[in-house]
Amino acid sequence: MLRGALQIAGLLVGGIGMIGTFAVTGMPQWRVSAFIENNIIVFETIWEGLWMHCIRQANIRMQCKVYDSVLALSPDLQASRGLMCAGSALSFLAFMVAIIGMKCMQCAQSSWQAKGYIILVAGLLFILSGALELIPVCWVASTIIRDFYNPLVNVAQKRELGEALYLGWVSAFCLIAAGAIFCCFCRCCEKTRSYGYSTPTHYPTHSQHLYRKTESSYSKSQYV
């Protein structure tokens, strides 16, 4: 019962992290325009993401444009593209492997040992995908904070942390937590298999049964 609850909890947390990773990869709110000093045009907001940049104005719908070239991006956003795509693929792979290794998925030729290895692989993939997501999110956040306090950077070019970065931290934490749950579950299964053995049952052999039958018939003849 407890092991099944751990599996379901790990799968739910991993699914939330996977969906969040997909959302963060496609969201344009990685870097948001900052309203400081003379840059007080509050009716216009600029969003910069991995794939496009958007301009949102008051009373006008948001307009987005895909980047013309990858070389037009900053080095942190260029690296974040590849890392986030790799993290998304690994999180999806970990989710599918976790489903295959779930206890409720009864296969004809599956065993507890094989399922334990599958769950362990899923946990390691979840942890790896969470680490891959943390790298670009923290890198972009550190670049934004560094440029924000740099007096040499133009005020119009300074940015603030966008909603995608906060969602990325939450998603990465969910992926790592799901991986830890699956790894702990695999460890518990190994301990259960090592201690949960049954004592062999000794059945009487044919010779012992024949000897008892002969002894019983002999004892009855003595009473006649």
From TrEMBL:
Molecular-function GO term, any one: structural molecule activity
KW Transmembrane (keyword) present: yes
Keyword Membrane belongs to the record: yes
Keywords, comma-separated and alphabetical: Cell junction, Cell membrane, Membrane, Tight junction, Transmembrane, Transmembrane helix
InterPro entries named in the record: Claudin, Claudin_CS, PMP22/EMP/MP20/Claudin
Main location: other
Signal sequence coordinates: none
Bilayer topology annotation: Multi-pass membrane protein
Compartments (UniProt record): Cell junction, Tight junction; Cell membrane
Entry GO CC: bicellular tight junction; plasma membrane
TM spans (from-to): 81-105, 117-145, 165-185
PROSITE patterns: CLAUDIN
Residue ranges that the Swiss-Prot or TrEMBL entry lists as coiled coil: none
Described purpose of this protein according to its UniProt entry: Claudins function as major constituents of the tight junction complexes that regulate the permeability of epithelia.
Family that this chain belongs to: Belongs to the claudin family.
Protein name: Claudin
Organism the protein comes from: Circaetus pectoralis (black-chested snake-eagle)
